[in-house]
Design goal:
Largest sheet: 5 strands, mixed, barrel
Low-confidence stretches: none
Number of strands: 8
Shape: globular
């Protein structure tokens, strides 16, 4: 499982996030952007954050370190916003923490052109995990120390919100016309040749092992092990069917 830390101070909400993430200080002296299991998307958004974030990291893309952030709702007592207090009351226990990158800039496609090889790798990855939340309106990319960092993958893997129909999504095409990096992604064939052989069942199993049991325990499967196996099967089948969903990219 991911490294575990305990939140000791709720600093501030981040109003730009639909799930109302917040900045939390932890007992390891770190500061994290907290994604709460009590938010409207529920624990499946946290599952997607771990699977996508840790898979992206293993494929060589920059993702802020992730932790399991233990929250005692008492840390929200001083927060004047009733919505935040309610969110913290509903999020006691294990939540997701993403390392806060101080001074990071929000990605601007005009101000921050991206190398075609990197843009193609990011687009390949987003198409694979069906990330619908990397548009020019909401890039979910940061520029930190002159490097491009991927954040906020809770809206990915949306097949897991309807497991009975998940098989039909294995070959579902990805619409890349709205992707913030589509104009730069002129080397999709190279990105596919580099990344697809690395997405093995062993790698997927390694990533799924990082997801806390409590986030996978639900009505969809008889056991947590069965849930993990279902994710591995789906993602392994999807990479095998990449001819159906792989975007062509823009001319180099």
């Amino acid at each position: 499982m991911l490294r575990q830390v305990t939140g000791i101070r709720y600093v501030t909400p981040l109003r730009e996030g639909g799930s109302l993430p917040g900045v939390v200080e932890a007992d390891d002296l770190g500061t994290y952007v907290a994604k709460f299991r009590g938010a409207g998307q529920g624990p499946k958004a946290l599952v997607a954050e771990v699977i996508c974030g840790e898979l992206a990291r293993r494929l060589g893309l920059a993702v802020p370190p992730l932790v399991v952030l233990d929250i005692d709702p008492v840390i929200g007592r001083a927060e004047p916003d009733q919505e935040v207090q309610e969110l913290l009351r509903n999020s006691g226990g294990a939540n997701l923490g993403m390392d806060f990158l101080p001074g990071a800039l929000g990605y601007d496609p005009v101000a921050h052109p991206v190398d075609a090889a990197l843009a193609s790798r990011v687009l390949w990855f987003d198409a694979y995990v069906e990330n619908v939340d990397r548009s020019w309106r909401n890039p979910n990319l940061l520029v930190w120390h002159r490097e491009l960092w991927l954040i906020d993958h809770g809206a990915s893997l949306y097949f897991h919100h309807n497991w009975p129909r998940a098989q039909a999504a294995v070959h579902r095409a990805y619409r890349a016309d709205d992707h913030v990096l589509a104009a730069y992604a002129g080397r999709m064939a190279e990105a596919d040749a580099e990344l697809s052989p690395r997405v093995t069942r062993d790698l997927l199993s390694e990533v799924l092992a990082l997801v806390p049991d409590g986030w996978l325990d639900g009505p969809d499967f008889d056991s947590v092990d069965a849930a993990r196996a279902a994710y591995v099967e789906h993602l392994a089948a999807r990479v095998a069917r990449r001819g159906d969903w792989l975007p062509q990219g823009s001319p180099a």
